[in-house]
Amino acid sequence: MIIASNFKMNHTRKSTQEFLDKLSTVSTEHTIRVYPPCTALCANPIVGAQNGYPAVEGSYTAEIGLRQISEFGIDKILLGHSERRQFGESQEFIARKFDFYKNENFEIMYCIGEPLEVRKQSKEAVIAYLKQQLQGIDLEYERLIIAYEPVWAIGTGVSATIEEIRSTHDALRELTNKALLYGGSVKLENIAQICAIDNVDGCLIGTASWDVDNFIEMIKRV
Ligand code: PGA
Predict the structure, then answer these.
(1) In sequence order, what are the residues at sequence separation of 6 or more whose Cβ sits closer than 8 angstroms to the Cβ of residue 186?
(2) The domain 2-221 belongs to what CATH superfamily?
(3) What pTM did the predictor assign?
């Protein structure tokens, strides 16, 4: 299983270090990933960047690119998160980022997920929506991990149901043989049940992962 923590805009440099130090005392057979904010990036094999501009460096105010990310020896990145999409990142732009970091051989955690109005329509509408978010994405890319995160489940405390996760992951499995993670209000109480679903290869966790003790406990429950 892959168990990943997306810090979003939480934690500082100091608290990220404390988090990673404590996490390093835990031995687990699972693959762990941590995506801290860019100010707290550090040389640690489980750390990835939450974002990256599709260029080595240049005049892109407030962005970070390959030069800044790889200074830490980091070769992992999270792309396509719904919060970035809500900030206005188009599919075309995300696909450009994907290609850029793919060419640099990064491990890419690629996020997709439908809004509530689409979920309410039908299962077919959900799959059609997710397929649009996979446009321009090489589903054969060796270092690809896909995270299915329904927008309405992110940060709301209301996870998708086991049946919703199962049927969506089954449909995604027909499109790719890459690892399929679920994200959206994963917590201590539901992580074991979610990870036990066929075609769920792990979880991408926001809120419930920011407390390191809780994150460690979640890893242990998988
Ligand atoms: P959440 O966030 O666990 O707080 O719902 C998940 C995510 O956005 O990756």
Answers:
(1) 159, 194, 203, 204, 205, 208, 218
(2) Aldolase class I (3.20.20.70)
(3) 0.97
